[in-house]
Amino acid sequence: MTSLDRARDLLREFPVVDGHNDLPWALRKQVTYDLDARDIAVAQNAHLHTDIPRLREGGVGAQYWSVYVRSDLPDPVSMTLEQIDCVRQLLARYPQDLAPALTAADMEAARAEGRIASLMGAEGGHSIANSLGTLRGCTRSASAT
Questions:
Q1: In this structure, how many other beta carbons lie within 10 angstroms of the beta carbon of residue 15?
Q2: What is the dihedral of CA 42, 47, 50, 55, to 10 degrees?
Q3: Can you state the angle between helices 76-93 and 132-143, rounded to 10 degrees?
Q4: Can you state the percent helix, strand and coil of the chain, rounding each to 5?
Q5: What is the pLDDT of residue 141?
Q6: pLDDT tens-digit profile of 101-121?
């Protein structure tokens, strides 16, 4: 058995949980969320750091999508909601590969189904206008998905 074979065996048993991915921001900047222009079901090496073939090849079992907005931009709450919508569009577009996840149990269920668990979170208090009420509203909305 080669070292690569051993590594793949380990990744099947212990998948990578990637704790930060800025794909939604890259999709905003490059193609204004046009998922047809950047179909991550096929290799996007020339444009993006992330696509489903590379997630699979890298043994990623869970992906934490960052719904990032720069703090110096106007209206960060709307932009954050756009980022959340982008992740939801990815989940709807690639249900055979990506599974929504809010809990560790969701992550385990996705793994059992052969899908990549998809979690998301905002960076910085400005993303929710430094408001716990906004956070509660977003959290309720996310759990309804």
A1: 18
A2: 40
A3: 10
A4: 50, 15, 35
A5: 57
A6: 999 999 999 999 999 999 999
Query: Can you name the residues that pair with 98 across neighbouring β-strands?
Result: 116
Query: Coil, strand, or helix at residue 102?
Result: coil
| Structure confidence by residue, pLDDT tens digits, 28-38 | 999 999 999 99
- Write the pLDDT tens digit of every residue in 60-96: 999 999 998 988 988 999 999 999 999 999 999 999 9
The residue among 80, 61, 60 whose CA lies nearest residue 70 is 80
Residue 112: both structure tokens together = 């059992």
**Could you tell me the end-to-end alpha-carbon distance of the chain, in angstroms, rounded to an integer?**
43
SS3 (DSSP) at 103: coil
Residue found under tokens 């051993």: 6
Q: Which of 57, 54, 60, 55 is nearest to 14 (CA)?
A: 60
Residue with tokens 């905003």: 28
